[in-house]
Amino acid sequence: DVKVTQSSRYLVKRTGEKVFLECVQDMDHENMFWYRQDPGLGLRLIYFSYDVKMKEKGDIPEGYSVSREKKERFSLILESASTNQTSMYLCASSRSYNEQFFGPGTRLTVL
Amino acid sequence: AQTVTQSQPEMSVQEAETVTLSCTYDTSESDYYLFWYKQPPSRQMILVIRQEAYKQQNATENRFSVNFQKAAKSFSLKISDSQLGDAAMYFCAYRSALRGATNKLIFGTGTLLAVQP
Q1: Tens-place pLDDT, residues A59-86
Q2: Does the distance separating the beta carbons of B9 and A45 come in below 8 Å?
Q3: From CA A3, how far away is CA B84, in angstroms rounded?
Q4: The Cα angle at residue B58 between residues B44 and B16, in degrees rounded to 5
Q5: Is B44 in contact with A104 (Cβ distance < 8 A)?
Q6: Are A4 and A89 contacting, i.e. CB atoms less than 8 angstroms apart?
Q7: Range in A31-35, B17-21, B100-104 the model is least confident about
Q8: How far apart are CA A36 and CA A92, in angstroms?
Q9: Distance CA A88, CA A38 (A)
Q10: Which one, A37, A75, B21, B115, has the greatest CB density within 10 A?
Q11: B-contacting residues of A 53-82, CB under 8 Å?
Q12: CB of B115 less than 8 A from some CB of A
């Protein structure tokens, strides 16, 4: 079974803090994705990566950056957290053009 | 740009009954994939069913089937013999199949399905 894990299920941070969200997959997938899920807006793609050290902006990259130093790990970074970044963050991975497998999500609250 | 629309924010169905969730999409591409994902409360999102646009036959997975109308750009999900475990948020998603396209998914806003015992 493919397993995608995220470092925290719930996270509370203060405005201005630097926040790291970690995602790890165990199936040697090339592609990894970070989505943000908000009520009434569905899932929106923040960034994705198709290989180590490679990244591409998604639809809403502003205020975020990513890092992929190892194939199995994809980190989402909020350089200076703001209240409008309070959301559910979902990580996903896939092999080539196949099905995306999702992690359990991190519910981030920025106070 | 492609868009996916789910016009039903919430739906309800009685256990053992059938329910249909609607999805429409907009694209100028001829080759693409469509998906339905299920997100149970506090659990991970999983793929329910997928449809290749070049296939005329509607996809089926056990109690789940789709009605794919390419000309109308409609992709509805039918759940037969609904069970309590079907209660979840359902997302419709689109992915381009053009050469060079990435594996990006474009999601609708979701439909929250309640199953009444």
Answers
A1: 999 999 999 999 999 999 999 999 999 9
A2: no
A3: 25
A4: 60
A5: yes
A6: no
A7: B100-104
A8: 11
A9: 7
A10: B21
A11: 56, 58
A12: no
